[in-house]
Write a structure and sequence with these properties.
Arylsulfatase, C-terminal domain, single chain, Alkaline Phosphatase, subunit A, globular, 475 residues
């Protein structure tokens, strides 16, 4: 990126986001605001400047956070894009809507945000990277045949505008959408970016690997540093693309009437991230700014991906239907009392479209956690951990070599290469935020472990989960 371009984008970003902030402070709720929901792909907290990562230069998203509300404890319902996105768009958990397979299309009878908003005359659209909810982009011939036979592809009927493309094309798609939107009609756009999904290709944005601060949950090695730098480059490129979109709102004079929601679709494809139920797999950035919304606020409420849909509906003036199990966090956007969830639930379903060769493609696990403790239930506990999307990359090969040589620190060897894994994992999130000290089976924490198992057991029964329940019969 050349300096003049960067300076221009920075200036326009500051101007736009100042407008958003002023709007939030000085205007009442707009009856029917435009709503722009932006998802990044494989993006965890704390990987934004706004979340305290000083190695990342993300001025546009940082400014968006300053002009709105930053949620510090937002989690997706799954550490994988397909089930997570389905929950975001429906306001219901993965098991409830039967999105239990990576290739699954969302069933026609399950309504989504655009359909609800259509009832109050919103112009709706989807653009950017594949949204996944008509099934994976890679399909067997038999899958395609089945889709056609049973008319399972539905999203071209759910929205007014549908256009898939890579990140450089997103701005053009959004411009086309806005050009086609009827005058004086509010819009809802679900915008999907590819970054920071692997493969990492943002070479021009990468910081110096040797100057980075390696997170506590990762070993400080040469390849880990290189991998982080590549991941950071993708996030900084994403930030520029988001800045261009925000500038488009400003240039068209609609920023003051548009609520912008930015969220990661699931955790980063880094060590113990995507595809796992650890913090890095579920904990994502969530930022909301626009008319009627607090400026420069942070929320510590426990928020789930199922909460996005009911919040959007309330912002648009709709009543949340009883079918949605999510909880609207609109009160938090207005500065009103909001406690969020007492417990967050997450599921890990099979990943990808190939036959299972290791746990990156096939693993089944569940989690429940509150503000202090987390329980993970590994149904297939005898299978070793295998990373999603980077099992063949230098960073993983380096760690495998270190294990063989006996040079990998014990805590990382246990975390990455345990055979077998534990069926149950229990973590004290205050004392052990990186989730290395498994307390399951420790008599001191028996009551806590039992309580979490009971919460998960009940949740699995209510939603008719197909996995064995975590509490066996007493006799």
């Amino acid at each position: 990126m050349n300096s003049p371009t960067l300076i221009f984008l920075l200036i326009t970003s500051v101007g736009l986001l100042s407008t958003l902030g002023a709007s939030a402070q000085n205007e009442k709720d707009v009856a029917q605001p435009n709503i722009l929901l932006i998802l990044s792909d494989d993006h965890s907290v704390p990987y934004l400047g706004a979340y305290g990562n000083s190695d990342l230069k993300t001025p546009y998203l940082d400014s968006l956070a300053k002009s709105g509300v930053r949620f510090d404890r937002a989690y997706t319902t799954a550490p994988q894009c397909v089930p997570s996105r389905a929950s975001i768009l429906t306001g219901r958990n993965v098991i409830d809507i039967r999105m239990n397979r990576f290739t699954a299309p969302l069933a026609r009878e399950i309504p989504t945000i655009p359909e609800f908003l259509d009832s109050v005359d919103y112009y709706t659209g989807i653009c950017g990277r594949s949204y996944h909810l008509d099934g994976s982009s890679r399909k067997a011939d038999k899958t395609l045949e089945t889709y056609q036979k049973y008319n399972m592809v539905t999203f071209n009927e759910r929205v007014d505008y549908l256009n898939k493309g890579s990140d450089p094309e997103v701005l053009g798609q959004f411009q086309e959408f806005l050009d086609q939107a009827p005058e004086k009609q509010p819009f809802f756009m679900w915008m999907n970016f590819s970054d920071p999904h692997r493969k990492f290709t943002a070479d021009a944005y990468e910081p110096d690997p040797m100057k980075l601060t390696v997170p506590n949950g990762m070993p400080d090695t040469e390849e880990v540093r290189k991998d982080l730098a590549q991941h950071y480059g993708e996030i900084m490129r994403l930030d520029r693309h988001v800045g261009e979109v925000l500038n488009e709102l400003e240039q068209r004079g609609i920023a003051n009437n548009t609520i912008v929601m930015f969220m990661g679709d699931n955790g980063a494809a880094l060590l113990r991230g995507k595809g796992t139920l650890y913090d890095l797999g579920l904990h994502v950035p969530l930022i909301v700014a626009g008319p009627g919304i607090l400026s420069g606020a942070n929320s510590r409420a426990l928020v789930s991906g199922i909460d996005i849909a009911p919040t959007v509906l309330e912002l648009a003036g709709l009543t949340v239907p009883g079918s949605m199990t999510g909880k609207s966090f609109r009160p938090a956007l207005r500065g009103e009392a909001y406690n969020g969830h007492e417990y967050i639930f997450g599921v890990r379903v099979p990943h990808g479209t190939s036959l299972p060769k290791n746990t990156s493609a096939f693993d089944l696990s569940r989690t429940v956690f509150n503000e202090r403790y987390k329980l993970i239930y590994n149904t297939l506990w005898k299978l070793p951990y295998s990373p999603v999307d980077f099992g063949g990359q230098p960073v993983w090969k380096e760690l495998q070599a270190m294990k063989q040589e006996g040079t990998l620190p014990t805590k990382y060897e246990r975390a990455f290469f345990a055979e077998p894994r534990s069926m149950f994992e229990l973590y004290d999130l205050q004392q052990d935020p990186d989730e290395f000290n498994n307390l399951s089976g420790n008599p001191k924490y028996a009551a806590i472990e039992q309580q979490l198992k009971e919460e998960l057991h009940e949740w699995m029964m209510v939603y008719q989960d197909y996995l064995p329940l975590p509490i066996p019969p007493s006799r």
